[in-house]
Design brief:
By secondary structure, this protein is of the alpha/beta class. The protein has one domain: 3-Layer(aba) Sandwich (Rossmann fold), CATH 3.40.50.150. It has 6 helices and 8 strands. α1 packs parallel to α2. The chain binds S-adenosylmethionine (SAM). The site of S-adenosylmethionine has 20 residues, from loops.
């Protein structure tokens, strides 16, 4: 079975779509980085039919799942997924620019250096006036927002000491240093949606 499912993707898709409704362009091209199972992509493509959606992921099993979920989409605004290692420098140079870039639940799983590279490449891949949404859990002043978040952060770091939750202020400062505007939106389950504007 190629089709994978993620309970968190089913839970957070509606609040994310609500936020996107207030910040997404009316039409244009959108890239989702780290699309995972493909459930979000299917939902977004149905919710925003005037936007052409490009799903992507690094993992072949996820790419197969995205392809499988895509067969449920009735419209013509969903592109076949592409393999994209978003933490590799220079991927933006291989793409056309996008009006919207979405990244959900990846930054906490990777080292800070990789997270910085992703932000740098997003800044390059956005067209003028473009918007990006980065969603996930963050530390506040270096502290997790709940015991469950502290436990998850520690578990990630036990597997890779370089990875783990990033500090919200540090990430916002980094984004601003790239010349992008950033606004913070508090989301369910202590998550944050960062809306970046080029
Ligand atoms: C926790 S899952 C989130 C998936 C999806 N965005 C969601 O919220 O359901 C993390 C995803 O990031 C992908 N990933 C990990 N490292 C990546 C990288 N360097 N570039 C692109 N995708 C990556 C994994 O394959 C996985 O699909």
């Amino acid at each position: 079975m190629k089709r994978l499912t993620s309970p968190s993707a089913a839970r957070n898709r509606e609040p994310i779509v609500e936020l996107l409704r207030s910040v997404a362009p009316k039409h244009g091209r959108a890239l989702e980085i780290a699309s995972g199972t493909g459930q979000h992509m299917l939902y977004f493509a149905a919710a925003f039919p005037s936007i052409t959606w490009q799903p992507s992921d690094i993992d072949p099993a996820r790419l197969a799942s995205i392809r499988d979920w895509s067969t449920d989409h009735a419209g013509t605004n969903l592109r076949p997924p592409i393999r994209l290692d978003a933490s590799k420098s220079d991927w933006a140079a291989t793409q056309d620019t996008y009006d919207l870039i979405v990244l959900i639940n990846l930054l906490h799983l990777i080292p800070a250096e990789a997270a910085h590279t992703i932000l740098e490449e997003i800044a390059l891949a956005l067209g003028k006036g473009g918007t990006a949404l980065i969603y996930g859990p963050f530390l506040r002043n270096g502290v997790a927002t709940s015991p469950g978040d502290a436990e998850f952060h520690a578990r990630i770091q036990s597997e890779n000491p370089e990875a783990g939750y990033k500090d919200l202020t540090d990430i916002c400062t980094y984004i601003e240093c790239l010349g992008l505007g950033v606004t913070t939106h508090h989301m369910p389950a202590n998550n944050v949606g960062l809306v970046l504007q080029k």
